[in-house]
Design a protein that fits this description.
With 489 residues, the protein is mainly β. The protein has 2 helices and 34 strands. Helix 1 packs antiparallel against helix 2. The structure holds calcium ion (CA) (3 copies). One calcium ion binds next to strand 3 and strand 4. The site of one calcium ion has 5 residues, from loops.
Length: 489
């Protein structure tokens, strides 16, 4: 009776405290180990010989004795019962308790029994120590005429132009409202090139779909795919990015892999040969964040330095030159970087002091320095402080302040600044009509912009000639935020 009551209370606690603590509670209550006759301190009296742990017989103050002095097998080196085991007999035999038989994890998690313990793994779409329902959407990306969002449970939705199969829904028919990407599960991150998509999954693999003209899907072919295919050679991938016609993946160990178009050295392998399967970017390690522009890339290292390679005709590599680089060079004058982003020919870095810096192409004011002068080394974006995230589109830039407001600058011919106008801005303006925002997004080919709330509700604005805003309309542009038709339960 006592035991049942304790297990029941343990179940209630599991939803609040997770597996580890409950495990110790269950271990303590469900032991059932055979003690020697009588309690501690009585066994030695009149017994056979002294208490020796590891001799196979339970004596004195021993809880158990399995004939060894090894830990982790149920009976410890000091012959006490270990948590998560039940022990019996003489010599003592210990077995793992299958805590999962008691369904301790609640309905939003899956119980994994382990030797001596158990773990509660949140079901897809559920997060936190109590495995509560997570945000509706967790990542978003824009290509030239298409858009994608990853749902909390690991599936993805796509909408807009589909001429190259870039919606991954099995056809080449455009969709003005979101439709599911076929056969994609476990998705965590998503990135869009001009007409292709790459997605990193929770198992560390990568899927890709859409145009494959330059091998940007990394499946060893140049065959267009209307549904997701596995990218070759990759494991332990944390995130992905996409340039116009190439793709990048970052491993958990901080290495970068690339594939697809290499016309401007954007694969960073020292050559200009296109690759249909991933190869490792040379001379680059300890990378924690990657970003792709249309024909160049940025990598932020753990030490806060920023590195760049590929096309440099607009100074987008920030090395003070306009020379194409087929391997990574260091961006000048940036230390303590916390995030990077890149558009067509410009680059952005967020520093740990929450200021934003920009370099490269500036004809539309996308560097935000009040001018339209190209910069071959970083300049500070004006009028921004307390910034926590950055993003870049084709010719525009975005920043998220800690107060949840979104700021944009650069080209606005398609309403992509979201300020209700189509006037380009050389300094940041605030996006109108948004609730508090948690995540911003665009893409190096995108003429439109996204913002997600903490709950994962998506807002979109900018070019909409292919239905890439997902609100069911197909009109040239919307210069204020609209809601793509994704329902969140
Ligand atoms: Ca013993
Ligand atoms: Ca043992
Ligand atoms: Ca167990």
């Amino acid at each position: 009776m006592d035991q049942i009551r304790r297990v029941t209370s343990g179940k209630a606690l599991a939803t609040l405290l997770g597996g580890a603590l409950l495990s110790s509670m269950l271990g303590g209550s469900a032991g059932g180990c055979a003690r020697g006759a009588g309690g501690p301190g009585t066994g030695g009296f009149g017994g056979q010989g002294a208490e020796v742990c590891g001799d196979g017989s339970v004596a004195g103050g021993e809880d158990c004795d399995d004939g060894n002095t090894a830990d982790g097998d149920g009976c410890s080196a000091t012959c006490s019962l270990e948590q998560g085991f039940t022990c019996d007999g003489e010599p003592t035999e210990c077995n793992d308790i299958d805590e999962c038989a008691q369904s301790p994890c609640g309905q939003n998690a899956t119980c994994m029994n382990t030797q001596g313990s158990f773990a509660c793994v949140c079901n897809p779409g559920h997060v936190g120590p109590a495995c509560e329902k997570g945000p509706c959407l967790i990542d978003v990306a824009g290509g030239r005429g298409h858009s994608l969002a990853v749902r909390g449970e690991g599936t993805a939705m796509a909408w807009g132009s589909n001429a190259s199969g870039q919606l991954g829904e099995g056809s080449t028919m455009s969709q003005p409202t979101p439709v599911p990407v076929q056969g994609l599960t476990g998705a965590l991150r998503i990135a869009a090139g001009r007409v292709h998509v790459v997605s990193a999954r929770s198992d560390g693999t990568v899927r890709a779909w859409g145009s494959n003209l330059y091998g940007q899907l990394g499946d060893g072919t140049t065959t267009q795919r209307n549904t997701p295919v596995l990218v070759q050679n990759l494991a332990d991938i944390l995130s992905v990015t996409a340039g116009s016609y190439h793709s990048l993946a970052l491993t958990k160990a901080g290495a970068v892999w690339s594939w697809g178009q290499n016309s401007n050295g954007q694969l960073g392998d020292g050559s200009v040969n296109n690759r249909t399967a991933p190869i490792q970017v040379q001379n680059l390690s300890n990378v924690v964040i990657i970003a792709s522009g249309q024909l160049h890339n940025l990598a932020l290292k753990a030490d806060g330095s920023v590195w760049a390679w590929g096309h440099n005709v607009s100074g987008q590599l920030g090395d003070g030159t306009t020379m194409q680089r087929n391997t990574a060079v260091q961006v000048q004058g940036i230390t303590g970087a916390a995030a990077v982003a890149a558009g067509q020919g410009h680059s952005l870095a967020l520093k740990a002091d929450k200021t934003v810096w920009a370099w490269g192409q500036n004809a539309s004011g996308q560097l935000g320095d009040g001018s339209t002068t190209q910069r071959n080394t970083p300049v500070q974006v004006q009028g921004l402080s307390d910034i926590v995230a950055i993003a870049a589109g084709d010719l525009h830039s975005m920043a998220l302040r800690s107060d949840g407001t979104v700021w944009t600058w650069g080209d606005n011919q398609n309403g992509q600044l979201g300020d209700g106008s189509t006037t380009p801005r050389t300094t940041p303006v605030q996006v109108v009509g948004l609730p508090a925002i948690k995540t911003i997004g665009a893409g190096p080919d995108a003429l439109h912009s996204f913002a997600l709330t903490a709950d994962g509700v998506i807002h979109a604005w900018g070019r909409n000639d292919s239905g890439q805003l997902g609100d069911g309309s197909v009109v040239l542009l919307k210069s204020s935020p609209v809601l793509p038709q994704i329902t969140c339960d």
